[in-house]
């Protein structure tokens, strides 16, 4: 049995993950530290599941007064509001930087720029359109809304465990999302995602292989590309990984 101090620490780590990934207020006092930030990453898939439950409930409510397509669009708008377009912002910044920079230093400089460029705008618009289209085509839209946020948030944990964090040479004090993310916590997060997929396989038998394939495909190919172009990951590229994984899983579903 875990000691009370450890339970309190994990409780804080969960709320830190929730506050980091969403606009939902943290209802507990957080004794912030880099170590606690490291620990909180294991709860990213759980936060995704909570978001998925909210999206699923919202979809059923919106469907009472709107067409299925309109309900999906409203859920996507809700998602952007609750998360503050956190991962979508990372996608736009990553594509702008990797598309417009010719050196690592220039790519990092572009990534830090708050303005969005042509590459980022196109990537963002197309990603959102594709997400709506795939959700509309899904055999079980509610299932896709429920599981995709949880599964997709496993990918950045793999990237954090396998790649170094890339620091801006002009801003060496910048900190990664999680420095030294442990493999044991990665295994715990992966086990949670697999159990979730197994539990929902009653409605979609191919959910487990679809989830594994989506996460590994993005982790391997996006991770390899980041290593070659940046030498590692940044916070923005982790956000892009979530979007890519979600689209890949929706495509398989």
TrEMBL record:
Which metal ions or organic cofactors does this protein require, according to UniProt?
Mg(2+)
Enzyme Commission number, as recorded: 2.7.8.26
Single GO term (MF): adenosylcobinamide-GDP ribazoletransferase activity
Q: Where in the cell is it found?
A: Cell membrane
How is it placed in the membrane, per its record?
Multi-pass membrane protein
Annotated keywords: Cell membrane, Cobalamin biosynthesis, Magnesium, Membrane, Transferase, Transmembrane, Transmembrane helix
Keyword Membrane applies: yes
Which pathway does it take part in?
Cofactor biosynthesis; adenosylcobalamin biosynthesis; adenosylcobalamin from cob(II)yrinate a,c-diamide: step 7/7
InterPro entries this protein is in? CobS (IPR003805)
One Gene Ontology CC term in the entry: plasma membrane
Q: Name one GO biological process term.
A: cobalamin biosynthetic process
What is catalyzed by this enzyme? alpha-ribazole 5'-phosphate + adenosylcob(III)inamide-GDP = adenosylcob(III)alamin 5'-phosphate + GMP + H(+); alpha-ribazole + adenosylcob(III)inamide-GDP = adenosylcob(III)alamin + GMP + H(+)
Highest taxon of the lineage = Bacteria
Transmembrane segment boundaries: 12-30, 42-62, 68-86, 116-136, 142-166, 209-226, 233-252
Q: Which NCBIfam families match?
A: cobS
Q: What does this protein do?
A: Joins adenosylcobinamide-GDP and alpha-ribazole to generate adenosylcobalamin (Ado-cobalamin). Also synthesizes adenosylcobalamin 5'-phosphate from adenosylcobinamide-GDP and alpha-ribazole 5'-phosphate.
What's this protein's family per the entry?
Belongs to the CobS family.
Q: What is this protein called?
A: Adenosylcobinamide-GDP ribazoletransferase
Organism of derivation: Marinobacter vinifirmus
Point out the gene that encodes the protein: cobS
